Amino acid sequence: MTPGTLSYSTRLDSEKLGENFTDLTIVPKAPIVISGPSGTGKSTLLKRLFAAHPNTFGFSVSHTTRLPRTGEKDGIEYNFVTKEAFESLIAENAFIERAKFSGNHYGTSIAAVKDVANKGLVCILDIEMEGVKQVKKTDLGAKFIFLKPPSMAALKARLEGRGTETTDSLLNRLMQAEKELEYAEQPGAHDKIIVNDDLETAFKELDEYIISLL
């Protein structure tokens, strides 16, 4: 696999998938999918959104095989699992979408989305581009928001500023960002594109758009 690309397999049992989604059809509000290159400020904006509307949204916590970063907690930012555990979930057809990036697996489980729905909250999904494509194939009726950096130079500076990237991982993320930006330009790829040049402006635009969907 070329460094920085996502590999994706859709080995989902369609009949089982349909059964699992039956309960989701009663949820009054469709899930909202947030995507965008790493470093565009997704986490910061989502934290502000949840703080502004504490009883409205629920975050679908994804599974990943990568190691936690400093300050990350299991079950909060991600469900951190071993490769073996992730593969067991694949065998159980547990994921709506899954992807592989920089040697690590990521996936959104059916159970995670249902858990949010069962609480009567609007489910927010923070997923990769290939995951977006797969969610579009479901009957969830999700809305798709893309967070875009003001420029590749600005994105590179943000990633370097985090102090968590190696030379290889930085290159991988920038290569992937170019692919995601190219996909975002396709008609109908997303319902809303927000450029995060200024945090306050970006949050206001995100907040107003999401609230308009409720």
Q: Could you explain the architecture of this structure?
A:
This protein is an alpha/beta fold and 214 residues long. Helices cover 41% and strands 18% of the residues. It is built from 8 helices and 9 strands. The chain has helices at residues 14-21, 42-52, 83-91, 110-118, 129-135, 152-162, 167-184, 199-213; strands spanning 32-35, 57-59, 63-64, 79-80, 95-101, 104-109, 122-126, 143-148, 192-195. Strands 2-7-1-8-9 form a 5-stranded parallel beta sheet. Strands 4-3-6-5 form a 4-stranded mixed beta sheet. The protein is globular and about 40 Å long. 32% of the residues are buried. Residues 1-28 have low confidence and may be disordered.
A few lines on this structure:
The protein has 214 residues and is α/β, with parallel strands linked by helices.
List the helices and strands and how they pair.
Layout: H1 14-21, E1 32-35, H2 42-52, E2 57-59, E3 63-64, E4 79-80, H3 83-91, E5 95-101, E6 104-109, H4 110-118, E7 122-126, H5 129-135, E8 143-148, H6 152-162, H7 167-184, E9 192-195, H8 199-213
Parallel strand pairs: 1-7, 1-8, 2-7, 3-4, 8-9
Antiparallel strand pairs: 3-6, 5-6
Please mark out the parts with pLDDT under 50 across 5 or more consecutive residues, or reply none: 1-28
* Portion of residues within helices: 40-55%
The description of the largest β-sheet is: 5 strands, parallel
State the strand order across the main sheet.
2-7-1-8-9
Put simply, the count of helices is 8
- Indicate the radius of gyration in whole angstroms: 17 Å
Instruction: Give the topology string: H per helix, E per strand.
Output: HEHEEEHEEHEHEHHEH
**Class inferred from helices and paired strands:** alpha/beta
- Average pLDDT, all residues: 85
N-end to C-end Cα span: 40 Å
Number of strands: 9
Shape: globular
Enzyme class: transferase
GO molecular function, one term: GMP kinase activity
Domain Guanylate kinase-like: 29-211
Protein name: guanylate kinase
